[in-house]
Design brief:
Elements lengths: L2 H9 L22 H10 L24
Amino acid sequence: MGWVQRLKRVFSIDVERCDRCGGAARIIACVEDPEVIEKILRHLGLDGDSGVEAMACAPPAGVGLID
């Protein structure tokens, strides 16, 4: 099972559909290098110093992670 299917199954996230219009989306990149991820998050103001941790929440109810 690939990461796209895992996101869909565990978190009900469909990265292949546009949230706005419901149309097909395509993945153009997968960033895995921690340094690059940090740089992107810092540029977006989402680094550890911005209080993003306070925005974290539990998964949606009824996801069915535990039977």
